[in-house]
Write a structure and sequence with these properties.
The chain is α+β, with helices and mostly antiparallel strands. The chain is built from eleven helices and five strands, in the order H-H-H-H-H-H-H-H-H-E-H-E-E-H-E-E. Strands 1-2-3-5-4 form a five-stranded mixed beta sheet, covered by helices on one side. Helix 2 runs antiparallel to helix 3 and helix 9 packs parallel to helix 10. The protein is elongated. The two termini are about 40 Å apart.
Length: about 375
């Protein structure tokens, strides 16, 4: 009966236990020997209430402890020599919930009051009253119920601590791995990208100083070096800080299309539908899809033109990139590269769909549909 973890199964189980205890108490009361008095009806009611109250022991252990204790005293005073089984269940539930001081105080009060209740039922002599009180609530059973509840509470607390420690350990290892990847990227890529960036800028500067026309390919290399430096810096910052705010998103897609023109590719961007705010994850995914698609066209395709189409729909954002390269369905399809796999993983995580394949009339198509979160 642990607190804070209620469910349908737990509630049903508590109800079954309560009904079973109430039936057992009533059965014992009916079959037992007790003097017929006008309090019989009250005694049966107290037996039933004491048992049925256990249905709420998981949610309100202290009130149930008080109710079952009072019911036990009540039906003892009414002349029913019935063990206080419901009270033992309530002691177990209260101890398991961590109410040790209240449980001990209530149990001492019940133990002290039971002989008085037995005397009130009409028993002759204090000895007989004490004997009936001892039979109604054996101290050994009371201690056992309390100990069982406390032991289970301690076990659950240790289990919760172990789970929390496991989560903290996993989080710490993830942080350490993220920092290790950041160091590896910094050590392996920063130097080479810096050389490419510096050398291309020097070449552009020298060409302009000599009055020569700077080749478009050289300008594309220069811009790619700058962009790679920005991307690497943003990636390293995200890895080190675990920053979830993306440095690139939908607003930067026009820059991608513009840069692709520097490579000689006739790229166009079309945006349809009513533009709306999208989540950072969706915007970042669209940016990466367009970036990877245009990069693949420049590297692996002899395409002269490419079109990027972004369509805002009521419940989804669709992006499609087409080129007029030589790919056809009859062409042997190579195994998916890292870029395509990365796109598919990003789209799948967001619950979307990705299609990347040659078209029948020639050329290659990458199409993705990402659901929009209304809360974003």
């Amino acid at each position: 009966m642990s607190t804070g973890r209620f469910g349908v199964r737990a509630g049903v189980r508590d109800g079954v236990i309560a009904v079973g205890v109430a039936a057992a108490l009533l059965g014992t009361g009916v079959s037992g020997q007790h003097p017929a008095t006008r309090l019989d009806v009250l005694g049966y009611v107290l037996l039933a209430v004491g048992g049925l109250a256990l249905a709420a022991a998981r949610r309100a252990p202290v009130p149930v402890l008080v109710v079952t204790g009072l019911c036990a005293l009540g039906y003892q005073a009414a002349g029913f020599d019935v063990p206080a089984v419901a009270y033992l269940f309530a002691v177990y539930a209260a101890m398991r919930a961590g109410h040790r001081a209240v449980t001990v105080a209530a149990s001492v009060a019940v133990l002290a009051t039971l002989p008085l209740a037995a005397l009130a039922s009409g028993l002759d002599g204090t000895g007989e009253a004490f004997a009936q009180a001892r039979g109604a609530l054996e101290i050994a059973w009371l201690i056992a119920a309390g100990a069982a509840g406390e032991a289970l509470r301690q076990a659950e607390r240790r289990a919760d601590e172990a789970e929390r420690t496991r989560e903290e350990t996993a989080r710490r290892r993830a942080d350490e791995e993220r920092l290790r990847i950041a160091r590896e990227l910094h050590d392996s890529l920063t130097h080479q990208i810096s050389i490419i960036k510096v050398q291309s800028e020097v070449a552009v500067h020298v060409a302009r100083k000599r009055g020569e026309q700077v080749p478009e390919a050289l300008l594309a290399i220069q811009e790619a070096g700058r962009e790679a430096t920005r991307e690497l810096r943003a990636t390293l910052e995200a890895l080190r800080d675990d920053d979830t705010s993306p440095p690139r998103g939908l607003g930067h897609v026009p820059e991608l299309v513009e840069r692709s023109r520097l490579t000689g590719l006739d790229a166009t961007l079309t945006i349809e539908g009513q533009q709306q705010d999208v989540s950072a994850a969706v915007g970042r995914t669209v940016y990466r899809i367009v970036q990877e698609s245009l990069t693949n066209i420049a590297r692996h395709s002899d395409a002269a033109t490419a079109s990027v189409r972004i369509d805002y729909r009521p419940d989804a954002l669709a992006v499609r990139i087409d080129d007029d390269g030589g790919a056809t369905p009859a062409t042997a399809t190579p195994s998916p590269g890292v870029g395509l796999l990365g796109m598919r993983e990003r789209v799948t995580v967001l619950g979307g769909r990705l299609r990347a394949e040659p078209r029948g009339e020639g050329g290659f198509t990458v199409q993705a549909e990402l659901p929009l979160d209304r809360a974003s």
